[in-house]
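User: Predict the structure for this protein chain, please.
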Amino acid sequence: MKEEFEKLAAAGKIEGRHVAALTQLAEAGCCTHRSWGFGRIKTVDTVFSRFTIDFPGKPGHPMDLSFCAESLKPVPKDHILARKATDLDAVRHLAAHHIDLVQIVLNSFGGKATTDQIQSVLVPDVIANDWKKWWETARREMKKDGHFIVPQKKTEPVVFQMQETSLQDRLLTDFRAAKGLKARVVVVTEMIKGAADLKDKGASAKEVIAGLNPDIVSHQRNQPGVALEAIFARDELRELADLAPDPGEITVALVWAQDGIKFGPLIETIPATKHHRALESYKAAFPDRWVEMFRSALNFVSAKLAREIVGVLRHNGKLDLLKETLAKHINQHTASSELLLWFGRERTEDFVDILGPEVFRAMLTAMERDQFQERRSNRLRDFILEDQALIAELTATADIEVVKDLTRALKLSPVFDDMDKRSLLARLVKAHPAVQSLVSGEQTKQDATLLVSWASLERRRLEYQELVEKKIPANSKEIAIARSYGDLRENHEYKAAKEMQKILMRQKEDLEAALTRARGQDFLNAKTDVVGPGTIVLAMDLTTNQLETFTILGAWDSDPDKGIISYLTPVAMALVNRKVGDEVEFELHGSKRRHRIEKIQAWKTEAGTPPPA
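Assistant: Here is the predicted structure, written as structure tokens:
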């Protein structure tokens, strides 16, 4: 193509200085434009002096040759962008060879590129799924290979170097150059991960341990968390290299035994991946007092650390003591937001006897208390809003009066804005329809008062009590047992138990709604000028000329065999407020009947009969 461009220059169609640039572009076949990005040169037209180039969003774009020479840069054929454009399938095949593909990318960018740059080139065209997993594998392979320098920070570039350096030499060089004990621990961690690929583990470990020990001494008082991290790394490396401890070196127990050490805050300074190791080290150092220390620290640490502390306590058979601590903080409303955040997320069957409406009350108290702290967190509030099942589960077995109190507390709480509060109240109403009037401030038709006898009211209360204290807890245990059988998709016991849970919850809701509306009555000395609850009505059937007796009592007092009917039945509603001599029509035994009221008398007087059993 050079000769063609030289002819165009001689004819005055392009400038001579553009020949070299145009030749490079034509031979490369790919280019970049500062605004349009990568382009692939499709045709070179020497008649009209132009290139036709495919840019993203601008396919088949014609460009004057002189403009191309000034504004385009050639992209070599071995560049990752050119390879993708000319043979994408081959590049995708290379993805199985992680470091080969990374090397091509690095060479395309002058031997180095950041993680974000590499990702932007490969995703989604080459790596369509699970980039994170692919990149972790690539990092491991590069660390073993002597040609790559893989930085700890994502913002620093990965570097490819022609001269190979062994993993051991590279890590020891990094260790010697690391500034500060924290940075040295990072290098030692990498050395532990790659211990199997070290040429001489013993020699490497000796040098590293000799470098760590003086730093541990200087950090043990002012930065005990960093000192602990270093001791953990040192001891693990020593174990891998099968070396004996150095005489007089600082141990974990010596760090923990220092005056002024604050257990919880110290562990919080250590990375979360080391929390369990730190807890076990304290347990080993103080076998007589670790349980009380863990229990007292629970209320002052993050939710993540609380989970680790709880795990150690449970694993060591201290579940009862743990539950005692949790119940105390919850009932006294002293539980921290972070402890309650962990507890809300946990909600396992181990704590079923603690989980209840008081937990939500404690959450409200903790969030209200946090409002007055400078460094308050909204994590508990966000969790409550996100977990759609939380409120329903915490109040599932609660007495309706307790739920009402909780509803009032939520309405008055200042920790949620109006929209979020309405959302939470709606969840309460869905789980407990009986609190609808408290939320809306209105008395709906469904909430109208029910007149019931004291005996029937007591029967319903006992039924409700058996439901929430026996049937629902028993069902919860059945669900837990069924869940332990495994695969829930084919677990018929689990499905049956969950279906029964729905039935029991609906029964509970119905009973709560009914008990909320119920008003106990003794129906004593009812007025007899008109028919009403607490009266006995003698009525003549005008078809059969037979006298019939109807005793009208409370909503739950029906006993047809004894002639007792609820004041809410169609027959009673036809009779109520009618006088002696009135004729009424109603359906009885499946057919319409007409009756005339002959007599109205009180069902119960001061010396009358007791309510029906």
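The chain has 28 helices and 15 strands.
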